[in-house]
Design the sequence.
């Protein structure tokens, strides 16, 4: 049995906030530099992922329960976006694209910069409210929040333990 290298369609989730349109898509097994995101002036989103290093007939595949191959998906965006200011992140096999909603669509061809093993990002809106954080910054913030909350037991915990709150 040999591994196939066929293009696969990508399932997506598209959602919005008051000022952003977000698209999330699973692209398991890719490196950030192998992913491209294109928005056309007509508002069409094109996601491409090129898989490198499939087994190429050097190993015998014994069980084949999921597909390996490149990824491709095209869809019309439901709103006009400024793709030049898009933020793109890729981690844990999931691509997330955050577009600022705009009056008119601004086309762009977006690529990711690797920021770690199998992680990438593209920051397109420096100085605006759409600042993504790196995984390390997010974890540091979570750790600081968790540590400070451990230093301050809440009233319910104190009364349950018979301690006086500080």
Sequence:
């Amino acid at each position: 049995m040999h591994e196939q290298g066929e293009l696969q369609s990508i399932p997506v989730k598209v959602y919005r906030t008051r000022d952003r349109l977000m698209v999330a898509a699973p692209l398991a097994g890719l490196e950030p530099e192998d992913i491209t995101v294109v928005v056309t002036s007509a508002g069409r989103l094109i996601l491409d992922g090129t898989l490198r290093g499939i087994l190429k007939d050097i190993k015998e595949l014994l069980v084949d329960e999921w597909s390996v191959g490149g990824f491709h998906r095209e869809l019309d965006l439901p709103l006009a976006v400024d793709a030049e200011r898009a933020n793109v992140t890729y981690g844990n096999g999931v691509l997330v694209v955050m577009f600022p909603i705009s009056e008119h669509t601004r086309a762009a061809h977006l690529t990711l910069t690797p920021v770690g093993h199998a992680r990438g990002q593209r920051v397109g809106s420096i100085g605006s409210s759409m600042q993504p954080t790196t995984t390390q910054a997010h974890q540091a913030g979570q750790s600081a929040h968790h540590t400070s909350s451990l230093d301050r037991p809440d009233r319910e915990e104190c009364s349950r333990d018979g301690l006086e709150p500080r």
